[in-house]
Amino acid sequence: MDGETSIRELRQQLIRARQECDPDLLRHVLEGVSSLAGDGYRCCLVDYKACKPAAYVRVVGFEHSRVRTQLEFPIDPGLSSEQWLPLSHLADYEEAADSESIRRIYDGVSAYVHRPEAELVDAPQPEVDSAGAAIAATNDPVRRAKVRRQDKPGRHNVRKPMPRSHVAWWFFAVALMAVSLTIFAGASRTFM
Predict the structure, then answer these.
(1) Which of 35, 42, 61, 138 is within CB 3.0–4.6 Å of 68 for a Cys-Cys bond?
(2) pLDDT of 155
(3) Can you list the alpha helix ranges (DSSP code H) found in the chain?
(4) Is 60 exceeded by the pLDDT of residue 143?
(5) Could you read off the pLDDT of 13-60 as tens digits, one per residue?
(6) Shortest CA distance to 121 belongs to which of 70, 65, 58?
(7) Which uninterrupted H or E stretch holds 56?
(8) b/e map of 123-148 (b: 16 or more CB within 10 Å)?
(9) Which phi and psi (to 5°) does residue 87 adopt?
(10) pLDDT tens string 94-127
């Protein structure tokens, strides 16, 4: 990859790869995002509905068809610092300079965008045990499961009662089967 790769170029290549169903071009996009991640590339998360940048992020990688980013601004403890964003919602700083530029970007990607809003993921809330102590700090899955079971006794073993509508359908099915068997048994006696 050359040093001149930008989010804009990669976004345009991604659109072309989708239009042409070109896996080689898609691999080129993935390599480009990886190259940007290696350089610690910074860009904007664009909210197409509001026509403004929603956040400023640093590209960290690419996995599961999303660009993995590190949130740099806004600084909000309620937001997760790691965000998984679609490439279609990322723009270079100069591209997101004004609302008209953002509208032009959206015109190019709108066929592939499911939601025009920029969505940031909240930070995970720490789990607490029955005494109110945080257990998110432990990496021991056995301890976490034990605390969860203590907090919610019988939660995993309790079966919900069947709704009345299901009971009625089961009753109808059993009655229909009994009538069918009776008719079948009567019909088979007449042929013997």
Answers:
(1) 61
(2) 45
(3) 7-20, 23-39, 99-109, 141-151, 164-191
(4) no
(5) 989 988 898 889 989 998 999 999 999 999 999 998 988 998 899 999
(6) 70
(7) strand 52-63
(8) eeeeeeeeeeeebeeeeeeeeeeebe
(9) -60, -30
(10) 988 888 999 999 988 888 888 888 777 777 776 6
> What's the rounded Cα separation, in Å, for the pair 28 and 24?
6
| Cβ–Cβ under 8 Å, residues 68 and 82 | yes
How far, in Å, CA of 29 to CA of 172, rounded? 58
Helices first, then strands: H and E counts in the chain = 5, 5
Rounded CA gap, 23 and 33, in Å? 15
70 - beta bridge partners? 58, 82
Residue type (1 letter), 149: R
Strand 82-85 vs strand 90-91: parallel, antiparallel, or unpaired?
A: unpaired
Residues 150 and 143: their CA atoms lie apart, in Å, by: 11
Q: How far apart are CA 3 and CA 26, in angstroms?
A: 18
DSSP helix/strand/coil, 67? strand
- Bigger pLDDT: 145 vs 9: 9
pLDDT band at 145 (very low <50, low <70, confident <90, very high): low
Please, what's the largest Cα pairwise distance for the chain? Answer: 90
Closest CA to 101 of 151, 142, 68, 52: 52
